[in-house]
Design brief:
InterPro entries: UCP030820. The structure is a single chain. This protein is α/β, with parallel strands linked by helices. The protein has 2 domains: 2-143, TIM Barrel (Alpha-Beta Barrel); 144-174, no CATH class. The protein is built from 5 helices and 6 strands; from the N terminus they run E-E-H-E-E-H-E-H-E-H-H. It has helices spanning 34-47, 85-95, 114-119, 132-141, 162-170, and strands at residues 2-5, 27-33, 48-56, 71-77, 102-106, 124-127. Strand 5, helix 3 and strand 6 (124-127) form a beta-alpha-beta unit. 29% of the residues are buried. The mean pLDDT is 82.
């Protein structure tokens, strides 16, 4: 798997995945399942300097609320490119829970969805090595969004849409 950075200024790192049955040992960082976090949460936090959690796109954000201040990474698994629940979960993590850590998408997504991932609050995308060039090209293809997202309403650094840029150019005073 390769990681694509979606958000400028955000550092993204590969995280070691810790299985549910693997004994915890002190590490700098580790990625565990939500079930493991809920079962062994305090031990996980003590064992790792930075904690990441893998969740499904249909996870209720309330399950992450007790941990949101201690998580450094939330990896949202998309079972299929047609399943948009992961987009909603990322937005709710950012908007409703105020989560500031890294949000990563994983799964069989379409390259054309890469830019929208960033606009919904994702910082990185895990892609297979054979899909990486296509995903990178899709990210570079469109720099200006056509319309804003709900998350854009709370972002101070939100990008101007194509319509806003056109309107500003049309009515700019020379």
């Amino acid at each position: 798997m390769h990681l694509l950075k979606l958000t400028p200024g955000r550092r993204v790192h590969d995280w070691p995945e810790i299985d549910d049955d693997t004994a915890l040992s002190p590490q700098t960082h580790g990625l565990v399942s939500l079930d493991r976090l809920e079962r062994d949460g305090e031990a996980v936090v003590r064992a790792f300097g930075a904690v990441g959690v893998r969740v499904a796109g249909d996870t209720e954000p309330a399950r992450l609320a007790p941990w949101v201040d201690r998580l450094h990474l939330v990896e949202i698994a998309f079972p299929d490119f047609k399943d948009g629940r992961g987009f909603t979960l990322a937005m709710r993590l950012r908007k409703d829970l105020g989560y500031r850590g890294e949000v990563r998408a994983a799964g069989p997504l379409l390259p054309d969805q890469a830019r929208f991932l960033a606009r919904c609050g994702f910082d990185s995308l895990a892609v297979s090595s054979n899909r990486e060039p296509v995903a990178r090209a899709a990210l570079a293809r469109f720099e200006v969004p056509m319309q804003s997202t709900a998350l854009d309403q709370v972002r101070a650094d939100r990008p101007a849409t194509a319509l806003e840029r056109r309107h500003d150019a049309k009515f700019a005073v020379a």
